[in-house]
Amino acid sequence: MSRAVPPIICLSVAAMSLALVAAPARAAGPGQRPELQQRLEQVVAAGAPGVVALVNDGSRSGDRHRIWTGASGVADLRSGRPMRPHDGFRAGSLTKTFVATVVLELVAEGKLSLSDTVGRWLPGILPYGDQITVRQLLNHTAGVPDSFIPKRQLYQEGIRFRSWTPRELVALVADQPQLFPSGSAWSYSNFGYVLAGLVAEAVTGQSLGDEMARRILRPLGLRHTYFPVDFPLLAGPHARGYSLALDDDLNPIEGPLLDFTVYNPSAIWAAGNLVSNEQDLARFFRALLGGELLPGALLAEMKRPFPVFPGFGYGLGLFVIDSPCGTVFGHEGGVPGFGNWMLNSGNGSRQFGVMINAEDAPAGASDLFTTLALDQGIREAFAGQPCAAAEPVAPQALRHGF
Known about the structure:
By secondary structure, the chain is of the alpha+beta class. It has a single domain (10-398), classed as DD-peptidase/beta-lactamase superfamily (Beta-lactamase, 3-Layer(aba) Sandwich). Helix content is 32%, strand content 20%. It contains twelve helices and 14 strands. The chain is globular and about 55 Å long. The termini are close together.
């Protein structure tokens, strides 16, 4: 989750409540899911502006997946416009899976190796660039430090329209020591993915956004997905994004929600600046895990996790989570204004996605939202499959920046 933009619009709790009363639950697609719809409404009742969910339980109509989508609450607190299942949003760290896919396609084409060092493609960008590999960037074992300077400036100081180049972002951590010897440990690094994006550009001679569009977005028909750079607005039908204010340690301060919809996403870049909607994200993960984008051997490499803690590992741009219904693959994302999850079975035939238009939401809403993603949502997607009564992975353990 990156961060951005100053407190633009303060909204009182009373105004929020009025907006939510005017926004009944909405659902589309096959079947009814009353328990899941009730969970969405509970997230809103706990203080979220709005929430969207998508379930693909593997059922089909002919050659098409039968997909349920639902929404509750509002997309815009000022106008009270109801949230719609197809509304767009900033997808945050789900961008990392797209970036990893671009890099792995280059590997499949023989233009790059996972064992190539960063120094080979980006000479001198880090003092230890010759000691870290492309694989280690993608699975967060390179020991590249992370930094919250862009987040702090964008949230607290209001430099929301500043344009950052990827190399300016890397420079924020280039003088810091490597966190650990390459490959020896795990630490989530947004700046590692900025480096991965720069490697892809060095290999292809094209912009990362152009490569992503050519290789993924256009072939899959993802018409509501784009990779904005130096463009602060959201195009097409979309939800507005909100957040609580942050204290000096970047912890949420309970109180009125602030509007964080408009800002320059260049401070996030390859770590999390993708804009999409639930339907496009689900289509991407079905294609990826279904073998449409990568050869089988590389897809297996992508899904092979570095163990982080019991129940959770990280592949090449993928969360690998032991859920009550078996192993699921996907990612979590959060940027100023939005949080979301997309979790999938190993072949992408079963899926659950959920979005909240408040990254730093009131505590009660945030906890309900994450539990919804990691437990109830997975059970809905795996309906008819054996699911244990075991507790899901602790939500707080899976929260990262960007």
